Amino acid sequence: DIQMTQSPSTLSASVGDRVTITCRASQRINTWLAWYQQKPGKAPKLLIYDASSLDGGVPSRFSGSGSGTEFTLTISSLQPDDFATYYCQQYNTYSLYTFGQGTKLEIK
Amino acid sequence: EVQLVESGGDLIQPGGSLRLSCEASGFTFSSYWMHWVRHAPGKGLVWVSGINSDGSITRYADSVKGRFTMSRDNAKNTLYLQVNSLRAEDMAVYHCARGGLGRLESYWFDPWGQGTLVTVSS
Question: pLDDT band at A93, cuts 50/70/90?
Fold first, then answer.
């Protein structure tokens, strides 16, 4: 099984900050990686697919990069609506899809 | 508008059974892979199972294999998850999510439903 490790688990930041979340895969997954945003009681929302492609309607302050085993999600200038939990997901393997443990982005 | 709406969650005793449903609208349901993902309290997202567009292929996480059965009725645009022999660790919000089109099994999930809560307690 491919394990996905996100860091940090919790991130405290202020409106306007630039923040980066890292996701590491235990095996190479090329760019088969997605990022999701989830708010309490809501459905996860797709932000990024194929490691760096922004889903339609997602603000351009969100960006993704990486390939192989190291990936990052960057928010260039935090907005109040961005405080949420973020998950990476690999979809490289045909029979299993694994998520990172999540990064909770909190207001400092 | 593409929409997924889950139902069927309930309070159930350990060892019990339940059938979860997910009604799809706004897209050609019969053309897509579909998945169930669960979110236990205080934990992260965990993929549970997936099914291809015509229901001929199903995949399961090891933790639910042999206890959960995923199926679909394309005429009713509805996805199902039969959950048997429930354990405390199965307690979670269960989300359905759309996967890839046709043969695209390696694909991201979009959109997701809001989820239905399964509570396992005696």
Answer: low
